[in-house]
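User: Batch of two.

Assistant: Item 1 of 2:
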Amino acid sequence: MEPRIGNKFRLGRKIGSGSFGEIYLGTNIQTNEEVAIKLENVKTKHPQLLYESKIYRILQGGTGIPNVRWFGVEGDYNVLVMDLLGPSLEDLFNFCSRKLSLKTVLMLADQMINRVEFVHSKSFLHRDIKPDNFLMGLGRRANQVYVIDFGLAKKYRDTSTHQHIPYRENKNLTGTARYASVNTHLGIEQSRRDDLESLGYVLMYFLRGSLPWQGLKAGTKKQKYEKISEKKVATSIEALCRGYPTEFASYFHYCRSLRFDDKPDCSYLKRLFRDLFIREGFQFDYVFDWTILKYQQSQIATAPPRAVVSLSNLPSLSYPPNTAGITLMTYLCYRAMARGLLGWHPCYRMIGNQALRKQGLVVGHQWIGVVPHYQLQVWGHYLSRKHR
C-alpha cells in the first residue's frame, strides 16, 4: 500500500535534504497536484520541523515564501507539506558550469535582498544563507526566487516592542561556514547584518565560480572552521572583489560597517546593484543564464535552418542590445521561457493578429511578444502534443 500523509497526500520519491530532515515528492490525492513533503523522525535528538512550520506560517503571504499545505505527525515522522518548487540556485550554478554572468547575478541579487529583508521584517534571521536555500519557482513563477529552510532561523527582536536581542560573544558557528560572516566566525551573536554579509559571499561565489576559502583541508570540523575563518579574515574585501564592479566591494563595506542592532538599508543595497545594472545596459527581462542554456539544449536535436533577423529593424520589440544577430524566433523563445515557461519544450507558430482575434484565447496559451502584424504563440509540451 502506498504511503499516505494526512489522508490527503501520496508520498513519492526522495528529492533532497534540508538542514533537518529529508524532502520527498508528493501528490495531492484529490487534485493530483505535486507538492514537497519534508519528513523528520520524531525520535530525532533536536526536533526542528514544528518550529520551522511555525516560522513558515508567520511568513505566509510574502513574495518568494512557499505555502504550507499541512503539518502533522504520521507514524514515526513529523511531516511538513509545502509548495513544490524548482531547482536551487546551487543546482542552476552547476548547470551553468559553475559561473554566472553579471546580468544573472544582478537579477538574482535584487530578489534575494528582498527575500532577506522580508524575513527580517517579520522579526527573524535566517542564519543559513546559501545557494541551496534559494529556489526558483515552477511554471508561471519560474522567474521568482524563493527562500526556504528555516530550521536555523532565530527571532532577533520582540514582535510587539521591537526590543533587539542582546549582544553576546563565544557563540558556536550556526549555518554554513563557507558563507558565514566574519563576526559569526569570531563567535559574535548573529544579527541582520550577518544574513546580508552571507548573501554577499553567495553573490561573489556565483560571479567568481568559487571563494578563496574553499577546499581547505583539516583533520576535524573544528579545525576546518578555524582555517576558513583565518582565510576569510585575511582576505580583504578588495581582494575578494578584484576584477568585478566596485559595487560589490561597496556592498561588503556597508554590511561590515553596521553595528549589531542596526537596521540595514536594503533600499541602498538594491539601488547599488540596480544602478550598475542600468549602467551596463542590461534589460530586466528574466532571461537568466540557464534560460538560454535550457533553450539551446532543446534546440540541439533537429532544428530546421532559419533566417537570421536583425532585431534593430523591429522597433516594436524591446530587446537587450547584445541580442542583435540571433534569430527573431530564438529571442522570442528566450523571452517566453523567461516569462514562466522555464524547462518546457516550446513549440511555436506565427499567426496573424486578425486570426488571433477570431480564435480567442485557448487555455495554456501565453502571448509573448509582438512583431509587426504578428504575435508569437507559445505553449508547453502538454499542449504541443495535441496541436502539432
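Item 2 of 2:
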Amino acid sequence: MPAVATTCSQSSALPVAGAAEPGRAVSHSYWQRVGGMPLATAAAPLPHRATILIVGGGFAGLATALRIKELDASADVVLLEARTVGYGASGRNGGLMSPLAAPIWLTTALNNPAHARAINLLERKIAAAAEWARHIAPEADVSAIDLALESQGPIVDAGLAHISRTLDAAGLAHDWPPRTSHRGPRSLVLRAHTINPYRLAAGLAAEARRRGVTIAEQAPVRSIDDGGTDGARVILVDGREIQAARVILSTNAYTPSLALARPPKARVVRNYMLATAPLGPELLACLTHAGGTSGGFVVELNTAYVFYRVHQGRLVFGGIEKLRQTEGGDLDVPAAVMRGLRKHLARSLKGSPLPDIVEAWGGRYHMTSTDLPIIGPAGESSAIVHNVGYGGTGVALTLSLAPLAAAMALGRPVEDQALAEIRDTMAGTRMPVAGALRFAAGVVGTWFAERRPRR
C-alpha cells in the first residue's frame, strides 16, 4: 500500500461562498440529501404485542433486526423509529468502516496478547460485515479503500510508529515508511471500507421489510417499563403501548430522551461536518492523490482530529466534537464551530483557496468510558437488552457486532467463537491506566530514538 501525501499546492479551487452561512436551519446531512431521505413519513399502525421489539432505526437496530431474521426467519420482529430510518448518526457520519474500531486496545496490545488477538479478530469481522452490507445494500457504495492516518508533528509521528508496532503484534497488514527512507510527516496506511451512510441505512431497512420485519417510523418512544421475565411495556409519546417479550434498545445518542429505570452509562458527543461544491481540477487531483475520488479516507492527527474523503467530486470534511449543542436544531452547526471547521479545512488544504462550502450539519454519537459498546441485558432478569454506546467507530462496530445483540434477543448462545471472544474481551476491558502509561512511555522512547543522530 502506498504512503499517502497530502501537500496541496496553490490551485484554482472555487471561491469562498458569499451566500448565507451553511449550517443553519439544517434539515438533511449531505448523505441524507443525495440519498433522498424524506423529511416526513406517515405514522404506521402498530401491533399491541411483539415478541422482539427494537427501538431505534439506525445501523444498530436495522443490522440487529436482519441478523435476528438470519438466525430465525420466523421471528416476530417490530422496529420503532422516532423519525425516519437513517435520521440519526447512521445518516450523518463520514462513512468510514474503520478497521481500528477499538482504539483503547491500541494502547495495551503490546503488553496484552488478548487485546492484540481481539484487534485482529475484530478487523476480520469488520471486513466480513462490509461484504455483508455490500450484498444487502448494493446501492450503498461499499468500497474497499486505503485509510491513511497522517502525522502532523513529531510526537504524533512517534505515536503512529508505536501503533505500527502494535499492528505488527496484532497481525494487521499496514504500510509505515521507515524514518531512514522518508522525510517529513509520515502516514500509516491500512485497508478499510467506506460507505454511503444514508443509502446503507435505507438499504438495510428495505431488506428488513422484505424479510418480514415490521418497521414503524414517526413512532417516538417516551418510556420503557421493564417487567423482567414478564417482558417490557413500551409507551410511545402519543400514548400508544406495545407489550414485548424482549426489547432491544438501539437508540444510542438519543437514549437520554427515554425514561428508563436503568439507563446505560454513556454520554452524548456532538460532531460536525461539511460538504463542498464540486472541486476545481487541481485541488481534486491533489486530494485524489491523498486517497480521494477512489473512495479513500484521510485522518489527520494533531491538536485536532480531522478527517476527509472525496465523494462524487465534493470534499466531505469533519473533525470538531462538542459535549453540548448551542443551536436549536438537531442538525444545526453553531457559528463558532463553523469558523473552526473553516480553519481546520484551510490548514488541511495547505495554502489552497477554500472551496465553496455549501452544506454543513451536526450529528451525535453515544460514547462509553472505554469507547466500546454496551451489548447486554439492562439487569440480571431484564427484558431489555442494551445495544448502545458504539462511539466514534460506530459504523464498523454496529455492523460487525449485530449478531451479538441478535443472539441475545433470541435468548441463544453466540455460536461464532470469534465474536464470543471479542464480546468477552470487551466486557473485561477497563480504562487502562498502566497500559496508557506504558503506551506514552513507548511513544516518548520512539520520539527520542528517532531524533538521535545516526552514525
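Residues 1-6, 9-19, 290-294 have pLDDT under 50 and may be disordered.
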